[in-house]
Every structure is written in C-alpha cells, then in structure tokens.
Write a structure and sequence with these properties.
heterodimer, A: 2 domains, six-stranded mixed beta sheet, globular, B: Serine Threonine Protein Phosphatase 5, Tetratricopeptide repeat
Chain lengths: 333, 212
C-alpha cells in the first residue's frame, strides 16, 4: 500500500484536522465524537440538514458543509457508516428549532445507524425527517436485495435541499424537495482500478489490467458486469443507456448531467466522458440544462467515473443555481 | 458448572475480544469477497474499545456490563455490525439486568432476546445470508438441548455446533440483505462474514463456560 498518510488508524482524524485548519471561516470540527458543522450553526429558524457516511468519498459529505448546503456531516471510518452518537450530537448542534433532515444513503449500516440516531433525537423532542437516497441503477430494486445504493444523486440532493432550507422552507417542504430529487435522479458508475482501504492495506478487489467493472459501487462493490476495456464512447453508451431508460428520461426533458470522478481519474478523462454523455443525450432529444464535472463523490483512489442524470423542473434549476459556500462547492457568493 | 458467574461473563467478553483480534483478517477477507472488506477491522476496533471501557469497572451486575458492551459497540463499530452487535449485547444485558449469576434458563432467555433484537434491527429472515443464519440455529439447539435434559456445558457445545453448521450453510446462499445482496447470484459460494462472527461468539461462550 502506497498512500500519503501517517498511520492508517489516524487517517480520518487527521483529515478532519486538515479541514479545520483549512476552512475555519466555513466550518467547525468536533472530535469526540467526530462531526463537522457550519461555522454559524445553529441557524435559528432554519431547517438543518445532516448527512453522513463512511469516509473515503471526499469531498462528500464534510466538504459540503456550509451556507446553502449541509449544516452538519458525520464522517465514519473509511467506508464504514458513522455511529448514532455522532449523528445525535451533530443533530443537536445544528438544530435551529425548525427541525432536522437526515440525508441517508441507502446502505444497510447507514440506514440502521441513522434509524437509531433518529430515535434518540426524537426522544429528546427534535423533529427529524429522514430522506433516503437510492439512485444506483446498477442494482435491481427488489425485495431480494437491500435496495438500490445511494450514489451521485446525493451530491445534487444536498445542494438543492440545502438551498430550499436556506429559503426558510418548512421541514416537510425541504424533505419533500429532497425526495423529489431522489425520485428524479439516477446514476451508474464504473471502475478501471480498485481502491485500497488504509486499514485493510490491500486492494478491495482484483481487476485485470485490461478489465473494467461496469456498475461499480462507491465502496468497490461489484456491479453488473466485468468486461474488457473499451473506448469511452462505448462505455458511456452502456452506462447512459441504463440511466436514461430507468426513469425514463424522455425527449424534451431537461436534465442536470453530472460526470463524477471516482478519485483516481483526471479531469481530462472526465471531459472526454462528458463529451460522450452530451452526444448521447442529444441523440435522445434530452437537453442538458446544467452540468457538474469533477470528483465529488469518490471511492478513495479508484480510477473510474459515474454518470448521474437528474430531471430538472424550473424550481429545481432555481435551487441548483442558488448561492452555495462550502469547501467542496462554491458559487454565487 | 451450574451457574455462570459475573467473572465468567467478563472472561467471555475478554475471550471474544481475543478471538476477534485473532480472526480480524479472516473476517475482513470474507467481507471483501461479498461486502466492503471492513468487518474484522470494525469488530476489532469495537471489542478493543469494550475492553478499555470495562477495564477496572467490575460492577458485579451482569446485565449492566453486557449493556455497556452493547453501547460501546454501537458507538465504535459503525457499519451494519455496530447496530446489530450493539443490539445483540444490549438485549443480552436487558434480559440479565441485575443478575450476578446466570442459570441455564437465564441464558436461554437472554439468547432468545438477543436473537429477536438482531432480527428486528436487521429485518433479516433465515437464509438471507446474515448473522441470523448462525444465531437462530444456535439459539434453537441450546433450547432443544436443555429440553432433552442435556447438561449446561453440553447445551452450550450443541449451540456452538449448530451455529457453525448454520454458518457453513450460508456458503451456497444468495444474499438478500446487506451489501452482499447487491451481488445477487455472485454472492453464492462465499461464507457470510456476519454469520462467521456470530458463530465465533457462540463458540467463545461454549469455550469459556463449558470448560472441563
């Protein structure tokens, strides 16, 4: 294992210390237990947004704490859900009296820990609404699986719901907007290489030099198929077809197209992918009204990408365009 | 041995922490085949925290100590293992609250409560390829052994043996819960890591309490 770390056990704490050192104007960091809140929390009268998940997906979620996005983020160990005591402490720290939305990616551990946390918070009189993100079309949604995984749509949802909360919308309205984003967003990922969890010290999965995994999860979970490396145009065709046919996105729809890097893929390749996505959607008569290109929901140093499409209403566009000021996303301010 | 003392319970907790530390890499390896390669790491972090918490805090109350184990696991393990093993120990603790020793029937009730708690938290059914596939046969074999008139030690051994069989029977199963379920048919052919750590738990109980 070759990584820029000191000790594997200290990675998460030292990353938080780095965030604290870099962005004291935007966030405050707590260590016992681990959570990050926006610098001016709690904001009285504003619905607060709390998310969290395993570390290793940076900038998600800690990099999205700030004005116009999350009020708090709870980082777990690498690829491991955070714990209820973190979520409870973060929820209390940001509760401004208008209620708190928990944004939970659909993974068994995250769901169970957030359920326990929501129970604890409600027992103390805090209104909590939980919103589940499950947008990964690589997984069949059936009674026989844990359901679809939460991936790329999470980033878009946190931005849009954050904008709605900033407008002082009610708890129910903010939660409903978040659920609308989840209902209209779909994603699919692919990997060129594996990733190495620092504490594990070796790659999460084996993959040949000439192989790719289509439908990969953000923790290196296997996807739909293992195939030989193909040109970007063919890979995008497979991924975009799966995404577009799922909602389905129709001719005349306007979408936000999000091409995300998995951590080890340079921007030059993400733009190659975006070009193919744009051509593909043009062929389907779907208009790209907004886009996001870069590494925002990553899987450590995995090389690869994901494609997320979100069907946009004028209202969602307005909320997307609203000002945001976080370590990871910043515009309009 | 007829009754389990407070010290026996502490010895079991220490022994389970040792077993998890020894089996850490094996559990993580099983998890990397069908999950996210952290089960051994997480359980080891949790049981280490448990030992640190219990060090020098001999309450004499079995229930209180088991609850402390549960709360510590919930706040240190993370993932799915944290809520599930946390719930398991919290339920063991609730069922043995205030007790300074356990009779065979007390362990039957505690094990039943713990298994019910895990199933309620994880919403798993038998053959979903989860912890329940080791815990449920372990619980049932213990109860059946007591009904057969077997000794406490024998009942614990049969419980561990049934859990081991249940664990091995997860190998051909297609996972229907947890991260492994994303694999569908590809999850078949691998032993479930959660069922494995659950077998280790019942085996450690037997090894600690059914000693000669």
């Amino acid at each position: 294992m070759k990584k820029l770390i000191n000790k594997p056990d200290d990675v998460v704490t030292e990353e938080l210390q780095g965030i604290e050192a870099a962005h004291p104007d935007l966030v405050r960091v707590f260590y016992d237990p681990h959570y990050i809140v926006r610098a001016d929390a709690p904001v009285q009268g504003k619905v607060a947004l709390v998310s969290g998940g395993g570390s290793g997906h940076e900038p998600m979620h800690g990099g999205f704490v700030g004005v116009g996005m999350l009020d708090a983020a709870c980082p777990g160990q690498v690829f491991t859900s955070p714990t209820p005591d973190q979520m409870e402490a973060a929820t209390k720290a940001v509760n401004g009296g208008a209620g708190v939305v928990h944004i939970v990616k659909n993974y068994t551990g995250d769901v169970m820990n957030f359920e326990m946390a929501a129970d604890l918070c409600r027992a103390e009189g805090i209104d909590v609404e939980s919103v589940l993100v499950d947008d990964d079309v690589a997984v069949q949604d059936s009674l026989y699986t844990a359901g679809r995984r939460g991936v790329g749509t999470t980033v878009l949802l946190e931005k849009i719901a954050g904008a709605a909360a900033e407008e002082r919308r009610s708890l129910k309205e903010v939660a409903d907007i978040a659920r609308e984003v989840n209902a209209n967003g779909r994603s699919m990922g692919m990997a060129l290489t594996s990733c190495t969890v620092p504490a594990a010290g070796k790659p999460t999965f084996e993959i040949g030099d000439d192989e790719i995994e289509i439908g990969i999860g953000i923790h290196g979970e296997p996807g739909r198929e293992r195939t030989k490396l193909k040109p970007a145009a063919e890979i995008v065709e497979i991924m975009a077809t799966a995404v577009v046919d799922d909602v389905p996105f129709k001719q005349g729809d306007q979408v936000l197209a999000f091409v995300n890097g998995m951590g080890g893929t340079p921007l030059i390749e993400l733009y190659v992918v975006y070009n193919e996505v744009a051509k593909f959607l043009k062929g389907r008569g779907v208009t790209i009204a907004r886009n996001l290109i870069g590494s925002y929901i990553t899987s450590l140093e995995m090389a690869g990408c994901s494609i997320t499409l979100l069907k946009l209403s004028d209202e969602l566009i307005r909320l997307w365009d609203a000002p945001v000021k976080t370590p990871g996303l910043r515009w309009g301010v | 041995m007829l009754a389990v003392t407070y010290d026996d319970v502490v010895r079991f907790i220490q022994a389970y922490a040792d077993v998890i530390a020894e089996q850490k890499d094996h559990l993580t390896q099983l998890d990397s085949a069908i999950g996210d390669a952290d089960h051994g790491i997480n359980m080891n972090r949790g049981m280490k925290a448990v030992l640190a918490k219990l060090n020098g805090h001999a309450s004499g109350d079995i229930g209180a100590t088991l609850k402390t184990v549960g709360m510590t696991l919930v706040s240190t393990v993370g993932g799915a293992g944290g809520p599930l093993y946390g719930t398991l120990f919290l339920q063991l603790g609730a069922a043995t609250s205030g007790k300074s020793e356990l009779e065979p029937a007390d362990w039957e009730a505690a094990l039943a409560a713990a298994v019910d708690g895990v199933i309620a938290r994880g919403k798993a059914e038998l053959q979903d390829k989860t912890m329940a596939d080791a815990l449920v046969p372990g619980r049932d074999a213990y109860r059946a052994a007591l009904e057969d008139g077997a000794s406490f030690a024998e009942a614990l051994r049969r419980s561990a043996a049934a859990a081991e069989e249940g664990m091995k029977a997860t190998i051909p199963l297609v996972a229907r819960k947890g991260r492994a379920s994303y694999l569908g048919e590809r999850s078949a052919g691998h032993q479930d890591p959660g069922a494995t750590s659950s077998w280790l738990l019942l085996k450690t109980v037997a090894d600690t309490w059914a000693g000669d």
